[in-house]
């Protein structure tokens, strides 16, 4: 049973912001609703007002700027991003990460903005977007701002979004020339599960085998997705070999703070973070994972 | 032992009321992101040994809207500290989460409980130290 609430369906982002300002804490935004409706059915979230964004056309669409940035509307579904010719051509790793989420039925309904606002630490898009240095575009009572995806999630289900703010989209800069990127999701139970751990990595491997650019992010290893900065520092400018991969993978695992749950104990997840970071790094060199 | 005063050191506790015979009724509000729970329940003192500096409590509470319940056993112990003139406060808890709240995420609630307990310990230590100085 869902507790009674008033449903609002604004036609524009501005109207949505006005509704948020009017109803404050009593209002909750809804995009695809795949997470919110479950939480409402369970009685865990009981908003008096639900502001559904389904009519707000300006939050849809995927485009590419002249400078090569991908601009993805908050209401783009996971399936649209997975299948977008622009995303597949210019950022195939991102399309692959979205293709790994849950099932087609869910991907047809769930949206990018909803995913980021929900801030479940086991979700797939955040680590992928973090290694791509993507930014969340936000509109609020004090105007527009951009938040690096890396700084969006602050705790389980908590974000750095201010009261009355709305995610309008995400922009993804082009990777440095020659960069490769990969997203690995470890699923020991079923194909449509949340990750036990996930690792996204992007790097430029120079002709001499050194790494002038490298970024690594992990999901499902703590209360928020994390960037493995100590591992990146150990790798940057170095020549990638098995010893360095092992060291960087150990540093990435050390940066995790996993929770025990049905997908594995904290210790197991930490170990899998090490294993999958090493595999991701090998994939970037073109070596067998 | 002043249970309402101890209980007020738990972040989110509201409206503690004595029912007699070492039992109390209270309300604990917890929020995790958009999730807000109002856990209404009772606290019973299960152990009180002032000479040894040990107290035990059992709390059970339920959220009406979410159809879930929480129970927790709490043991508070005050001992002489390592340095003379200091005391050490140890709090041990064993909490269970049942029903929909538990389904949604035992580990999430557990992390929240850990945060709540460490804030509780800090508040209690501050309250005790304040009382000692007064």
Account of the protein in words:
- The complex is a heterodimer of chains A (289) and B (134).
- With 289 residues, chain A is an alpha+beta fold.
- Helix content of chain A is 34%, strand content 23%.
- Chain A contains 11 helices and 14 strands.
- In chain A, helix 9 runs antiparallel to helix 10 and helix 10 runs antiparallel to helix 11.
- The termini of chain A are far apart.
- The model of chain A has no long low-confidence stretch (mean pLDDT 95).
- Chain B is an alpha+beta fold.
- Chain B contains 2 helices and 6 strands, in the order αββββββα.
- Chain B starts with a helix and ends with a helix.
- Chains A and B meet through strand 9 of A and strand 3 and helix 2 of B.
Features:
heterodimer; A: about 290 residues; alpha+beta; five-stranded antiparallel β-sheet; four-stranded antiparallel β-sheet; 14 strands; about 35% helix; about 25% strand; B: about 130 residues; six-stranded antiparallel β-sheet; about 30% helix; about 50% strand; globular
Shape summary of chain A: globular
What is the count of β-strands of chain B? Answer: 6
Report the major sheet of chain B.
Answer: 6 strands, antiparallel
Distance between the termini of chain B: 18 Å
Note the overall shape of chain B: globular
Rg calc of chain B: 15 Å
Discrete helix count of chain A: 11
Strand content of chain A: 15-25%
Low-confidence parts of chain A, pLDDT < 50 over ≥5 residues? none
How does the major sheet of chain A shape up?
5 strands, antiparallel
Strand % of chain B is over 45%
Largest interface: A-B, 20 and 20 residues
Order of helices and strands of chain A: EHEHEEEHHHHHHEEEEEEEEEHHH
List the helices and strands and how they pair.
The complex is a heterodimer of chains A (289) and B (134).
Chain A: E1 6-8, H1 13-23, E2 27-30, H2 36-41, E3 49-52, E4 62-64, E5 70-73, H3 78-83, H4 85-90, H5 92-99, H6 104-109, H7 112-118, H8 125-131, E6 135-140, E7 143-148, E8 153-155, E9 158-159, E10 166-172, E11 179-186, E12 197-204, E13 213-219, E14 226-227, H9 229-235, H10 242-254, H11 266-285
Parallel strand pairs in A: 1-3, 2-3
Antiparallel strand pairs in A: 4-5, 5-10, 6-7, 6-10, 8-9, 11-12, 12-13, 13-14
Helix pairs in contact in A: 9-10, 10-11
Chain B: H1 3-7, E1 13-20, E2 23-32, E3 35-49, E4 54-63, E5 68-80, E6 87-99, H2 100-133
